[in-house]
Amino acid sequence: MRRRYTTLENQTIGLEKLSDRERAFLNKAFMLYARKVDWNEFSNFYISEIQKIFGPVPRKEIVKSPLFKVCGDLELRLGIEQGQTRRSDYRDALEKLIDSEFDSRYQFCRKANIPQDTLSRILNKKREPSIRLLNTILGSLGFELTFQRKQIPGRL
Amino acid sequence: MERWHYFREKLFEEFGGYTIAPGEYLGCYTDPDTHNIVSDQSRKYILALPANEVQKLRRFLRKEAIIFKQKTIYLQVGGKVEFISFRK
Question: Does A90 or A155 have the greater pLDDT score?
């Protein structure tokens, strides 16, 4: 059994203090992941089993536990691998920025002077914006493009 | 964190569990505002709740409708269909 686990978001989770029961549960979870079961099947498995392990522990505490975090990450990996979901990217950050700064997309598009349809296609992953267009969009929000070192997702 | 992932975590935290029906549901509907036919994929979650938590579920879904940018969310309680709208 591994001593630590690194999530897709590069969070390291220590597994040294798990009880035998928790280890057995996690081993089963890793086994299901290795078999590439359907992500919904995996989710149903760990959600139903984890409550049995924690018993009366408040759910707010359970979701912070190493077991829950590892299983959630395995579920996310399966979802991505099976094309059911995707990792967050710059579009999610852009959408969040626009929604926090403007009452409506319409208002933002008027300020940025871009067609609403263009923004919609970008946010819905149907169009990749040019650097120039992205700079225009970001400039309207008071932001600019910058570089940062790439984070490599945690490996299993 | 990815939206679906976060949704599942919150669903567990708030209601203590769920079951996901296998697969996706592909369908279409007429948008009441634009009158356009919209095709969409849906996922079905099954929750076992006491009656006094249904109102909490409605509030929860109303917030999720905003996060998922859905005008309405289909909810079926005891065989009765409801459309949860973020506008209400």
Answer: A90
**Strand duo B19-20 + B45-46: pairing:** antiparallel
pLDDT band at B39 (very low <50, low <70, confident <90, very high): confident
| Contact status, residue A36 vs residue A78, Cβ threshold 8 Å | yes
Residues 33-62 of B with CB under 8 A from A: none
Query: Contact, B43 vs B70, CB < 8 A?
Result: no
Give the pLDDT score at B1: 54
A60 to B13: CB separation less than 8 angstroms, yes or no: yes
Q: How far apart are CA A4 and CA A84, in angstroms?
A: 27
Which of B5, B9, B17 minimises the CB distance to A85? B5
Closest chain A residue to the Cα of B20, Cα to Cα: A40
Q: What is the nearest CA distance from A133 to chain B, expressed in angstroms?
A: 24
User: Which residue range(s) make up the domain with B50?
Assistant: 3-85
Prediction pTM value = 0.73
- B26 in contact with chain A, both atoms CB, cutoff 8 A: no
Q: What is the pLDDT of residue B19?
A: 92
How many Å apart are CA B2 and CA A85, to the nearest integer?
A: 8
Question: Which among B87, B85, B81 has a CA at the least distance from the CA of B72?
Answer: B85
